[in-house]
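Pinned message: reference record for DNA-binding transcriptional MerR regulator
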Amino acid sequence: MTHSHLLAGRFLAATRLSAKALRLYAEQGLLVPAYVDPQTGYRYYSAQQAPRARLIARLRQLGLSMARIAVLLELPAEARAIELRTWLEAQNARLAVHTEFVEAMAFQADLTHPALSIALRKVDATKIVSRQRAVTVTGLNGFMAEAEADIRKHLAASGLAHNGRMSVHHHNLTTRDADGPVEVAITCDGPVEPTSDLIIRLLPARREVFTPVPADQQNFPLVLSVYDAIETWIDRQGLTIIDSPYEIYPGSDNAPFDIVYPVNP
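Predicted structure (tokens):
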């Protein structure tokens, strides 16, 4: 030990840390005492450890884990700044997503949705040509446009009518960080062969709960409130959802699209 060593109390005063924080950093191996008196157990810190102590405190104020801080402490200052800016960008993106969901839930506070016209209908068995892909909301519109064009081209090449309505089936949650999968389909009537990634399948005769989606609620995340409203309606009617929900373009009553839930027959 030299004259440059400070007792823990003086080191706390120099760094404006609490005794609890100093013990925690020592236990985690982030800031261990430079010297511990074997007889008294007094802990001494080097004056040169003060900048590290202040840096740890700042990183803790960001809410970073001890493990993440341990990694950052060993980086050069420039590399540390790059890591922190990357982390901040991710935090901002996550906050934006959370904001969207909060706004959608706030919009959904009135589950009655007086602007929605939810109804039940019977639908005959339908043959579709479709393409399926794991895609997030960010890439959804591009995938829809590409798949629709390719399916209609394939139907036309097969000598079939290719002007049927498009449906988009969400086989799992589709958000900015959940990627479905999503299936884009076009109805068809007549013999058609599948291709490498276009499949043919038959949707059985069914009952559907549906609603036209108002133009001001068609975009993510507000459209989630429409899905929630339909699910609430289905529950109140004592019905059971039996398959993935989907959207039909164009919708009824001049709506951009309908949201549809197949329910128990």
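Pinned by admin. Summary line: Helices lie at 8-15, 19-27, 50-61, 66-73, 77-107, 137-157, 222-236.
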